[in-house]
Design brief:
The chain is mostly helical and 426 residues long. The chain has 15 helices and no strands. α1 packs across α9 and α11 runs antiparallel to α12.
Length: 426
């Protein structure tokens, strides 16, 4: 959790005054923002779930799990350093394009260069270098998109927008498998295609809606670093949401990182067959995800409640991972994934709404939402390595999936426990 750097104060001290409340957003905004988020998550999820493991398996088939964990961890460290920094700097970026748009366009260009580098890498060190470039560019795109809900969307619509983002996330994962399975014969297209689609969708959004403007004062790099630190006791509820997000993403990382290998090591599928199976599961599961995301998001707006949905999602995730731990056939694997996908839809639509409700200062939404987003990227620095360590427990070949998924189930339950202590929203 971010470090303490402020004097002792009472719990839940009043937040800084917010900017004028945003006005209701319309169908065009919801559509284009949803499509842009689909592009973002296709770019994020396709490498995480398929492209990167596939490439690594080609380079180091005998040490694929450990190599994947190492590469993922290094990339996550790059994201951890660059992500919050980009968020703070974007808050204070003054340009004729606005304050978020330069980070979106520049980040896309960097991601494309890095993706092509990963595709062409003949060795693991060069692959790592390309992947770090991808992660640095991704920090820029996230800094441009993550603050939008807090800046532009009124509280009464945040659950609905969160549902749209949740659906976009799952669509990105499902189509990532489908597209990945079709492009295995061309590694450059495998890595570059989602970035190009993201760029097109992002440009449509940026031309349709004006960018927000930054305060006239600029900030230095040193000031930006200082802005990343805050006292969790001052903003207790926001810190609890941050911790809950961290725990959930850690649990989910065990599944997203190693499910391709699970299908091969335990169930005996080839990488191509596993990709097809995952696309099938995701194609059916997206109906479940969309239902959970949309219904949960809309109900959370209508009932003005967030916590119950996040707590329920933590229980569903734990149930799915617990079932996954003992899955010995594709049917049980399918059922376990559906539990997790439903939970992910519910969590994604309501947790981001809860975090946006609790942003201490909307004028610095880039700073606060980048800190929130850090809870999603931080697990990437240790969860794959932790997962690979759990896989080695009692099994030198690295196949103890039971231990890894049971640990994930316990961690997921921690999200519900932490969320029960939030008091600023119901």
């Amino acid at each position: 959790m971010p470090p303490l750097d402020e004097p002792n104060v009472a719990l839940d001290a009043p937040a800084a005054p917010l900017a004028e409340a945003p006005t209701k957003v319309g169908p065009l905004f919801l559509t284009l923002f949803g499509l842009m988020n689909f592009g973002l998550y296709l770019t994020v999820m396709m490498p995480a779930l398929f492209s990167l493991p596939y490439k690594i398996q080609q380079l180091t088939p005998d040490d694929k799990a450990v190599t994947l964990g190492l590469v993922s961890a290094i990339g996550a460290v790059a994201s951890i350093i660059a992500g919050p920094m980009a968020g703070v700097l974007s808050d204070h970026t003054v340009s004729r394009w606005g304050r978020r748009r330069p980070w979106l366009i520049g980040g896309l260009a960097v991601v494309l260069v890095g993706s092509i580098g990963v595709a062409l890498a003949p060795s693991v060190p060069l692959l790592v270098a390309g992947w770090v470039i991808v992660c640095l560019g991704g920090a820029g795109t996230s800094a441009a998109i993550t603050p939008v809900v807090a800046e532009r969307v009124p509280e009464a619509q945040r659950g609905t927008v969160g549902a749209i983002v949740g659906v976009a996330t799952q669509l990105g994962g499902v189509l990532g498998y489908t597209i990945g399975g079709l492009l295995t014969g061309n590694l450059v297209l495998l890595f570059a295609a989602p970035v190009i689609l993201f760029a097109v969708l992002a440009l449509v959004y940026t031309f349709a809606f004006p960018d927000s403007t930054a305060p006239t004062q600029r900030t230095t790099i040193a000031q930006a670093f200082r802005a990343l630190a805050f006292n969790p006791r001052t903003h207790r509820d926001f810190s609890l949401v941050w911790l809950g997000k961290l725990l959930m993403q850690t649990a989910l990382a065990f599944l997203t990182t190693y499910q391709l290998y699970f299908l091969g090591d335990r169930l005996g599928f080839t990488p191509e067959e596993a990709g097809q199976k995952l696309a099938l599961v995701g194609g059916i599961g997206i109906v479940v995800t969309m239902t959970f995301a949309v219904v949960s998001g809309m109900l959370s707006d209508k009932l003005r409640r967030r916590r119950v949905f996040v707590m329920t999602a933590s229980v569903l995730t734990a149930s799915g991972l617990g079932l996954m731990a003992f899955a010995d056939g594709f049917g049980l694997f399918f059922a376990a994934v559906l539990f997790v996908l439903g939970a992910a839809g519910m969590f994604g639509s309501t947790d981001v709404a809860m975090a946006s409700d609790l942003v201490p200062d909307r004028e610095e939404a880039g700073r606060w939402m980048s800190i929130y987003n850090l809870a999603a990227t931080l697990p990437g620095s240790f969860a794959p390595l932790l997962g690979s360590g759990l896989l080695l427990l009692g099994d030198p070949s690295g196949g103890n999936y039971t231990a890894m998924f049971l640990a994930g189930a316990i961690i997921a339950l921690g999200t519900g426990i932490v969320t029960s202590f939030v008091r600023g929203v119901r």
